[in-house]
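Entry 14: structure prediction run for Bestrophin homolog. Input pasted below.
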Amino acid sequence: MWILAFAVVQCFYRYLMTENQQRFFEYAAIHLNVRLVHIPLTFMLGFFVTIVVDRWRSVFTNIGFIENVALSVGTLVAGTDHAAKVLRRTIIRYLVLSQVLVLRDISMRVRRRFPSMESLVTEGFLYRDELEKMYKCETMYNKYWLPIHWANQLVHKAMFETKNVDSVQSMNSVLMNIKDFRQSMEMLTKYDWVPIPIAYPQVVFLAVRVYFIICLISRKYLLSAPPTEAQSIVPIMTILQFVFFVGWMKVAEALLNPLGEDDDDFECNWLIDRNMSTGIEIVDTCHDSCPPLKLEEPDDEKGTMYWCHPTKNGSQAPPTAVAISQHKNPFAKVLNMVHPTTPESSPPSYRLDAPKQ
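Run finished. Output tokens:
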């Protein structure tokens, strides 16, 4: 579009203007081209893109993945009975519930999926009695912390009442992972609470557009230019500059709101479902399940890549004590060398200050 506008202005200047109009156009083009450097476009756009990318990276880092806390709960909260399973599943559900409460206030996609607190009960993230407890909590501010508090209380109960946690260190480890998850949710609320001032992106986007509108006039090859200058009707460098700067601006524009509804924004609903499914799988299905340790020789004829001694049937077996004792040290001869001690066999010294013999 900009190249087409440049061509239209070029044709209008060369073929439709009178001589006096062309002279005035050339004066305006020279004047604008000299003062175009007064717009610090590189500084403005670079600083703005740096801020936007840093915020985007921080939001992505703190979006909240459940694996760390689920692995600690599944490992340190022991028990195979029904009560222990319900305990671990409930801790994960409370953490995901806290994430849903945060995301439904900062993401339109999540808000559309969970328009009310009743929808959380319908989706299975919250029970009716738990919802009534949330309503009874009298505070005029948000209640993101309440499911985290419930999860901490369950860990404390598992330590001192049901004895599913065997030590204070294990309890502290689980609580620290829950704390890290809560801090990630807190960072998301902070970024939503204090966004980039709306005037800043407007000024940057306006500066980019005004800069290249001025280039439609200032970057023309003038008819009165000296014949020594390169006569190029197509401004190749200006076109490249337009592509790079406008592309730079579009990148910042796409990353400005990572929790929005564009195709490039984060899929928060997918993340919620993933965290719930993965967390339950870790603490319930995969709890206390580990392949048994095997010291026998495997049946695979090809062996494995870290066994390097072939057996009679062609497979590879782990190195035995005999094989290790027969292993040759390639540096044995070097380490066992006898250094000469007689003056006749000693090599000459190449030092400039060596004493004379």
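Notes: The chain has three domains: 2-38+197-255, 67-193, 297-324. Will compare against the previous run tomorrow.
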